Amino acid sequence: MRAEIISVGTELLLGDIVDTNAPYVSRQLSTLGIDVYYRVTVGDNVARLSDALKTAFSRADLVITIGGLGPTEDDLTKETIAEVMGERLVTDQESEKVIRDFFERRGVQIAPSNLKQALIPEHGFAIPNGMGTAPGVGIEKDGKIAFALPGPPGEFIPMLDNSIIPWLSDKTAGTASVIVSRTLRVCGIGESAAELKIKDLLDNRNPTIAPYAKSGEVHFRITAKAADKESALTMISGLEAKARERLGEYVYGIDEETLEYAVVRALIERKLKLALAESCTGGLIGHRITNVPGSSETFLAGVVSYSNKAKIDILGVPAELIEKHGAVSPEVAEAMAKGAVARTVADVALGVTGIAGPGGGTPEKPVGLVYIGLCTPDGTEVTRNVLGGSRQDVKLRASQSALNMLRMFLLH
Amino acid sequence: MRAEIISVGTELLLGDIVDTNAPYVSRQLSTLGIDVYYRVTVGDNVARLSDALKTAFSRADLVITIGGLGPTEDDLTKETIAEVMGERLVTDQESEKVIRDFFERRGVQIAPSNLKQALIPEHGFAIPNGMGTAPGVGIEKDGKIAFALPGPPGEFIPMLDNSIIPWLSDKTAGTASVIVSRTLRVCGIGESAAELKIKDLLDNRNPTIAPYAKSGEVHFRITAKAADKESALTMISGLEAKARERLGEYVYGIDEETLEYAVVRALIERKLKLALAESCTGGLIGHRITNVPGSSETFLAGVVSYSNKAKIDILGVPAELIEKHGAVSPEVAEAMAKGAVARTVADVALGVTGIAGPGGGTPEKPVGLVYIGLCTPDGTEVTRNVLGGSRQDVKLRASQSALNMLRMFLLH
Q1: What is the chain A residue with the closest CA to B52?
Q2: Distance between CA atoms of residues B183 and B223, nearest Å
Q3: Do A299 and B291 make contact, defined as CB atoms within 8 angstroms?
Q4: CA distance to partner chain A, nearest, from residue B238 (Å)
Q5: What is the ipTM of this complex?
Q6: d(CA B179, CA B164)
Q7: Mean pLDDT for each consecutive 10-residue tract of chain B (412 residues)?
Q8: What is the pTM (predicted TM-score) of this model?
Q9: Same domain, yes or no, for A157 and A10?
Q10: Which of B2, B4, B32, B41 to mutate to test the interface with A (most CBs of A within 10 A)?
Q11: Contact flag A304-B286 (C-beta cutoff 8 Å)
């Protein structure tokens, strides 16, 4: 089966919003072994949407449109699909009921334009939308399949995952080959150095392994094509084992597991309590740690000691230390980490001080210089990091280095 | 002039990366009054790229391709454009020199495939790439214009901004009308309520005003089409004044100005020092404040008091208060804000406590319940907020409500 994706919306075409739905559906289709050869974006214009639909049906078996299902007069995707497929639109009773209930519960008068959202092609079917009033529609006719889904990702993604993908999965069962991927997430080593370690594996044809550089980390995506998911996973496991052997402890997680997730999980496993003392990262490390559900099991407190006075008063960093070495120094990073432990009865703490820029740099202490102290029951260590990029890049990379330093400690 | 954008790359089509280049070029072209009717994504496949190019030339005067200019055998954009336009590829001496110098400086042996990057169509011209080895190419022939640019945004964006846009600006000078936009950023009011306030303005044809809902705020984009930039700006100012009259203090900034930027600017103007006491937001408010360059002028310190003990020990919240009312209560939010002021000699402080979820909710205190205390020289106030969405949504919306509460105080 071959698919084409059409994203509909003038705001997409003007570049006002970035389309994340189309890549999402691409990934989901590839796991079913459905090839996507073209993706097209058109505005809210019937003639051009009609043209895009005709072209898509001429070269694909399955067309998925995203957007243009709202109640306004600009929203014309269903009408255009119906016209191109020679279908009349009829009211879907169940969808109408859902829409009427929605407005009734809110005590809002329903407008006729809202009822337009209950229309579906006469030979089609409605796809329930748990997060909004616009149902999607599906239709299978003359050997072609079309799905129309709403544009807001909060509605689009659940409808795709819960209705379209299972429907297509049944449809393609036994006929197509599947594509399955797994991402190895790597931190603490640069992209080139990491690539060098698995250089020979990069030539592998099936499964393949390909690097993607992210800010402060590298992802290696392993992709296998096979007759079924199980065979693909077996192929992936073989290549993954080889890659892990080469990359060792630099691998911190797979797929959607973040670095902060790996750190929180390891802290909880080892029953260690964490405290933070942040200066240049401004709270970002605490924010990342607390993005992980359950982090309250290990995370006690953070101090964002942006001013010198806060370093002295809250963390107990000796004033003389700051005077002698400056606030950005290995001595202060160490004292911040120690102070965070002392202040909170934590087992481990990070202390981060640096110059995020764009101002504040000197020849001796340039923008991007960041010292990270790690205080543990084994003692305290400090690393010196020189990080590139904008203010936000420096903050992100400093948080990355600090979390990775903590992760490495927790491994041993 | 009408343009079509073709993004080239199998990694785009598989959904491995999100295409931010195509929206960027859309926005830049709209400022020149160049309409984009279609955007197309194709993989690294000569036949399908050739097909997409022919279709694009049949309905547009200008075609911009993004990607496929690398040294590998998958990179075939230039070759395909040359074939479709009936051009031979020849070596551009200047580009070859740049590539040879690049490798020489690094002491790396140059591969023949790298010299492929110096090829340009015989009637075309090279577009210098200050950030990589792949020059772009441009060609004007038989009334059609084509540009091919490399895919990495760090190379693509400077080449577009420094070479293509000025070239097109000369080309369209005097002939095209320009499109100019300004975004009004609004916070503290829901999308529907904000829209209602400017309902009649939404029918305006030129300039237009259109709402875009963001997480915790609403953006209104005003767009004018006129013969020149100055006339467009005058038209925008007229509609902007009307919208501002209706939206009043809900408008906190324009274009790229963030809420944290507005808050930091107002604090510095009023010479007030800020402290933070964060629980459920975990450091996010400190992170946002310190994303603003120069925030060290006003921001003294934050305490991320995730555990009750940290609320008591570091912020001086009375233990009885937590016992009696619970950590998520208006009383504790107030005591946290007061404690942050007392601990740091700040003039104003926020105290934020709530349940970010997904666990930890009860019927009385559900997930999403967040109390925000604001302590100022005028006294302390507390708001109760019930916020929807995932753990990260609740954190973001809580930070948004807290920053907006502080902004409103600073306005008066």
Answers
A1: A38
A2: 9
A3: no
A4: 22
A5: 0.78
A6: 17
A7: 94 89 92 90 95 96 94 87 96 91 81 87 92 89 95 91 90 73 91 87 88 83 87 95 97 94 97 98 98 96 97 97 97 98 96 94 93 97 91 95 98 90
A8: 0.78
A9: yes
A10: B41
A11: yes
